[in-house]
Design brief:
2 copies of one chain form a homodimer.
Chain A (H helix, E strand, L loop, with lengths): L2 E10 L3 H11 L13 H7 L2 E11 L14 E11 L7 H8 L11 E8 L3 H5 L6 H9 L6 E5 L8 H13 L4 E3 L12 H19 L4 E5 L4 H13 L4 E5 H4 L1 H10 L3 E5 L3 H5 L4 E3 L1 H11 L3 E5 L9 H12 L32 E4 L8 H8 L5 E3 L2 H4 L5 H17 L3 H7 L1 H14 L1
Parallel strand pairs in A: 4-10, 5-6, 5-13, 6-7, 7-8, 8-9, 9-11, 11-12, 12-13
Antiparallel strand pairs in A: 1-3, 1-4, 2-3
């Protein structure tokens, strides 16, 4: 029987083995008093198993405040727990409830974080994963050998549909590949969704007729389900290529339903993520998170950016980008064997299930971070988003887009920010304008 | 223009005013470089406003680890931020992204928790709230003047549909009001959903024919959306009265779609909640959380229980129960005025939008906690769940159910656990059997 493996970082005032066993019990056949029907045979077949315990450091202050330890010590460890696929079948919400459900309630833990999950090959038969992914998004935008360059309509809210369309015209003519609504912009009275699609696609279709290039616009369809489906259809009918969903606000069932429609590349916004991740000993790490959304079929997902304006470290961003580029399933060997290995993801895009998901680099990006981003990730398979860096460029938005492309060319050349600024006068100016705010 | 008010507990190394302004900016018209179109008029109309700042204590260690403060101090405060309804319209996922989205990413905060949200009267015109709620669930189960008594099928997973039905028969004959699937039990190969409904409803329909009492069974329909709708329809067709959703795993869009179908009382399981709430300075508090799910239309929601087996304090459980019984909307006065006042919720149940949601008390409950639960909440408007406390009762499940009813009668009499055990011999035995584990 195939098994699902989940890796947790834990902290406990108890013996690690005892705490791990409590987790496995709570998340499979456990109850606080033995009940009839809880036979040995049933437990053998359905019980979650603690597969591995790797003790880490001991600390004297608990990760989550308010805990007491009789011995004054808290033990940290990495543990691997497994479940038979038979427990949940191929059901995404029940998978989520199994690996990140009630276990966070257990008093045995003063810290608990889901680090990664490993899904057996049979999942590839039930979950297609991203329909478009990296290869599909490149095809739709006709961008090769460099990141897709994108931006967000700002101000986030308040623009009329005509003002939005005027901005889109400017950006399209500037040579942008991708534009998106802000996550705060859904279907408000001052910018009704259908009217916004009409205005924006009028511009982008005309631009495509003239130039042959269809700019990808991710319309924020996040809403109740019927409205999302109506809005999705409106985008398809209007010649659009993408829709955006706020993943945490819409949820797995709604997101999967939308992704399954299969006609648009789905841009996954992770707003609310800080709440799930920001404490080092609570919640979920991005490698596990992006796998769950890839199962839902999301094509693009936010990973923050190097030297971002938020709290996240560069190391964490680099790990997130790497996670997106790994295959979702290990289809190479025995069921439930080793963690998925890094493969050439080009071969995975398209027909093979579990294709890589396009990492969306954003938050305070102005171009100068390209050098460090490439140095650390060695990939251009990115959607690179800049806001003010384009619209507030001293020589206008077209110069802003050219500047971003130039930064990426310099990054792929292997130059550092300083070397790039020294070699290319326009990048020097870019540093002078944006270097302080972005750095 | 109506406004939405959200209350946050924050901690910041900066001046509180500055941090609060950053939150308001990020969640409305902010961008890190001023862009064209960000006019004063637009900002006036759409900007989020900091309405109130109440400074709390100063601390020297940050709530979320890894933060530095130049002055070595971190200031805590409660702040109220408001948004015009015009920003998001009546769109639940966009509301969620607005009040609990990117703000958790802001480096300005070493702690941030959404404590409550106040929704203006126009929301009552767009969101019905619970279709059944407390009054509807009482009507369906024919239970008056005491809590609904319920239990969970255990072991959580592994039972065949025949074994499940046999257990249901025992419980129905024991006089139970409510039974539910475990959240780990969805539609696995060893207990296919349709077959489980057939087996269980065969028992419960026959029992209803005999006794006139239809036991409510919350079948866990959590799954992808099409499957949820199929399973919902199956329950309706089979004469069932309830379905269960794992709220965090299904998400707002899927849950709202299911609740809107309106034929079944929806049991909302909050597994995963610990991840959103367990740190005192991160995530969301239950008063805000239950309001969002009530907007989706959920009829019953888990609140943990007094002296539970998990980490949560009794105080927190008491606050959660009180929150469920408050009206969702303040329809009494001026738009966006004072927080909703406690009203007689009986008058709200049914036709009025925003009816109270039935609090589901569970986790290690065996009956003895009834006294303290009633003393502190003064309500019997509860679904009181006991697992082992019923099935493992020394005189069998019927005695277990009777014992729970007796405990509640004693609680309403005003007795403490000790007084109840002294007065009623069967409760004394209950304490002897379960008192240690439950307490």
């Amino acid at each position: 029987m195939e098994r699902i493996f989940a890796t947790y970082l834990i902290e406990t005032p108890l013996a690690v083995e005892k705490a791990a066993a409590a987790l496995a019990g709570e998340q499979s056949s456990g109850t606080f008093v033995a009940v009839p029907g809880e036979t040995e045979e049933l437990k053998q077949r359905f019980a979650a198993r603690v597969e591995k315990i790797t003790p880490l450091e001991t600390v004297t202050e608990p990760g989550l405040p308010g805990f007491r330890s009789p011995g004054g010590k808290f033990q940290r460890a990495e543990i691997v727990v497994s479940w038979p696929v038979e427990n949940m079948g191929w059901n995404l919400p029940v998978l989520v409830s199994t690996i990140q459900g009630n276990l966070y309630e257990l008093a045995q833990f003063s810290g608990l974080k889901l680090m990664d999950v490993e899904l057996p090959p049979s999942f590839a038969g039930h979950f297609r994963g991203p329909k478009f992914g990296i290869a599909g998004c490149r095809r739709l935008t006709q961008v090769e050998n460099r990141p897709l360059i994108g931006t967000i309509i700002k101000p986030s809210i308040g623009l009329t549909t005509q003002q939005t369309a005027a901005l889109v015209k400017t950006l399209a003519e500037a040579g942008i590949d991708f534009i998106k609504d802000d996550e705060l912009m859904g279907n408000p009275p001052h910018s009704p969704f259908d009217e916004r699609v009409d205005s924006v696609m009028h511009v982008l279709n005309a631009h495509a007729d003239r130039t042959g290039k269809k700019v990808m616009y991710a319309f924020n369809i996040s809403d109740e389900l019927d409205a999302m489906q109506r809005h999705y259809e409106k985008v398809v009918q209007s010649g659009g290529t993408s829709a955006m969903i706020s993943l945490n606000s819409v949820g797995f069932a709604g997101a999967k339903k939308i992704c399954d429609l299969g006609a648009l590349a789905i841009h996954g916004h992770r707003n609310g993520w800080g709440m799930l991740n920001r404490h080092p000993l609570l919640g979920i790490e991005f490698p596990a998170y992006q796998k769950l959304w890839r199962l839902a079929g999301v094509d693009q997902i936010h990973v923050n950016g190097i030297a971002n304006k938020f709290w996240e470290s560069d190391d964490s961003v680099v790990r997130s980008i790497a996670a997106c580029l790994q295959p979702l399933f290990d289809l190479s060997g025995a069921p439930g064997a080793a963690p998925a290995r890094l493969q050439n993801h080009a071969q995975l895009a398209g027909a093979v299930p579990g294709a890589p998901i396009l990492p969306v680099v954003s938050s305070g990006q102005w171009g100068g971070q390209a050098c460090e981003t490439f140095r650390r990730t060695q990939t251009t398979d990115l959607l690179y988003m800049a806001g003010g860096g384009i619209m507030a460029h001293p020589h206008g938005p077209a110069a802003g887009v050219r500047s971003l492309q130039k930064w990426w060319a310099a990054a792929v050349e292997g130059l550092t920010l300083e070397q790039a600024a020294q070699k290319y006068p326009e990048l020097k100016k870019s540093v002078e304008k944006f270097g302080k705010q972005g750095g």
